[in-house]
Amino acid sequence: MAVLSQGVGYGVVLGIGALFAVCMSLVTKALHRYLNENQQSSEMYMTAQRTVKMGLTASAIVSAWTWAATLLQSTSMAYKYGISGSFWYAAGATVQVLLFAVLAIELKKRAPNAHTFLEIVYARYGKATHIIYLCFALATNIVVSAMLLLGGSAVVSYLTDMNVIAACFLLPLGVIVYTLFGGIKATFLTDYAHTTVIFIIIIAFTMTVYATSPLIGSPSKMYDMLVESAQKNPIPDNAQGSLLTMSSLGALVFGIINICGNTSTVGVDQAYWQRAIASHPQYAVKAYLMGGLAWFAIPFGLATCIGLAGRALQIDISASDVSAGLVLPDVAARLMGPAGAFASLILVFMAVTSASSAELIAVSSLLTYDVFRTYIRPGASGKAVIRFSHSIVIGFGFFMSVLAVILKQTGVDLGYLYTLMGVLLCPAVAPLMCTLLWSKQSRLAAMVSPILGLACGLVAWLVTAKGIYGEITLASTSGNYPMLAGNLASIIVPIPCLLILTWIKPENFDWESTMKIQQVADDEVVQDEVTAIDIEPKTAIPTEPKLSAEEELIGLNKASRFAKLSSVVLTLALVILWPLPMYGSQYVFSREFFTGWVVVSCIWIFCSTLAVAIYPVFESRAAIAVVFRGIYRDLTGKGKASADSSPTGSSIKSAGDQTEVIVAEKE
Q: Which of 105, 289, 314, 442 has its CA 20 to 30 Å from the CA of residue 99?
């Protein structure tokens, strides 16, 4: 029996969805009125004028990377393998964001006006290669969107008995509305709101489990309960069958699959490139590093807390429910009753809707710039671009709902898609990275290597399933070892292929064609007259100093060196230096060590909250003050209808976040 009523399910999905849609639409209007940010400019709609600052970019990265799977699969892995499961989920999906910092800054250097990563592929290799990578990119968005809705609808249905098909269609509804009106800036602001709510709920769960719950209440009691649970139900292939060890073969295998799969969904997903494109060049690297480390806290802290609590309380959850990601709502309901169930419902709703908005704007960008402006109406500008992108937001929102229903009816769940995604998407990763990082890679290498990698990955996956289980079914192909074989083949095979083909006939690309990618002319857009607001003289929102081309290049080169060093060091720490010695030692945590582990996870959660929930507000405090001052003056009747009628002659000019309020003194 569901813990919550159907009314609660529909209330959350429709009510909160509508609330966010209305709020974000109003925020979009406020930004236009008080900061002159015109979302109907195609460059503003798709790229936010490439001026988003570090805190907001980091928050958006966390939100885009916080799928339903982040919350649901991470807790499932902790329940399945113990403490090593939550760690390998977190580490295996963090390193890609950290490494993406390198791609982000190279994008700023070599294609500063690009709208999508596929524009770079087209400029370098031409039509045939462009179409190949377009297929991989769209496949990535489709797979990610399907996982979001499969996980979200499963939780909503499980907790409230809401019809799962209705959930698939209603979850994206509010997202479509605010994405339609506000573009990427609206998604960034919504991402911030969602990320803040997610961290608040995670803190509440953590404090409940480790401090206030009468069922557990302390790390020490949790330790005793986990030891008792492992004695009754030892974990296969874990050291001493314990839940309190990093020495888990199953978790290690999952960790490798996780690294492969998430490498593809970061490297080939326009949603992450979109954030790099929208970020200010000065902040891109730091934003990705800060966002990646902040995101680590979500699966690391939440799964360690909730997943292990499920084992500590010895809650019996079926294998199918574990695969569907239902550990989180089940354990939350057991710990906190209806309040826990409602909190987990809100948590998953926030994750699904925020990541869905990122996918919607990503698909809209791909089809607008890489299909419409490339093959259907080359050179289309302004109004035509906005109109087409709006139609894609609506169309893909409907498509992702239909696809989720089809997959649900065929028995494919969140866990299956999560481990399969690397087999399908990894082949494009290595050649795509080399497209931006290696001038020697040849066109033939870029074309052949992903196709060969995909073929080898599929063969390895299916042959291994047949060899181990004697049949090819959903059950046999979902096993750890078939998925491991497919993921490894898909990510490894393209590397020697592209090296050999490039060695045979290398190129010497000079990046001139990517530097020539132009921004879209918005001459067709009718700019609304912005109503000026009355602001005290000499009030200004600080702007970044304008740099010469030479100074900017020096800064980008410095940022590139920092990105390469820091991302590599952090990656080695998270996937080699931290976990592997613990795996090899066969160490089972002592009470003191486990308590320290819990303390570290809690500190990480609080630091991440400061980074992506508090810092963005501090960073944008001047712009926020201008908006609220303008709202106050409008409400009290002190605002002026135009600059001409303003006693101070105030006016506003803006370029995204680089907004400056200029006040003309009375003569």
A: 442
- Of 422, 532, 441, 558, give the one whose Cα is nearest residue 140: 422
Provide the whole-model pTM. Answer: 0.85
List C-alpha distances in Å: 664 to 645, 647, 650: 13, 10, 6
Can you list the alpha helix ranges (DSSP code H) found in 111-126?
117-125
Structure token pair of residue 28:
């979009």
Which token pair is 435?
Answer: 């497209």
Among candidate residues 194, 218, 192, the one with its CA nearest the CA of residue 57:
192
Mean pLDDT score, 583-588? 94
- When the pLDDT of each residue in the chain is averaged and rounded to a whole number, the result is 85
Give every CB contact of residue 601 below 8 A, 6+ residues apart in sequence. 206, 297, 300, 301, 304, 305
Our CA dihedral for 78, 82, 84, 86, rounded to 10 degrees, sits at 20
Give alpha helix (H) positions in 208-326. Answer: 219-232, 249-267, 270-278, 284-312, 319-324
Spatial CB neighbours of 177, under 8 Å, sequence gap ≥ 6: 21, 25
Q: Is residue 636 classed exposed, middle or buried when 0-12, 13-18 and 19+ CB atoms within 10 A define those classes?
A: exposed
For 355, half-sphere exposure in the C-beta direction (CA atoms, 13 angstrom radius) is: 31
Stronger pLDDT, 115 or 595, i.e. the higher one: 595
Do residues 261 and 418 touch, judged by C-beta distance below 8 A? yes
Burial bucket for residue 546 (CB in 10 Å: 0-12, 13-18, 19+): exposed
What b/e string do you get for 228-245 counting C-beta neighbours within 10 Å, with b at 16 or more? ebbeeeebeebbeebbbb
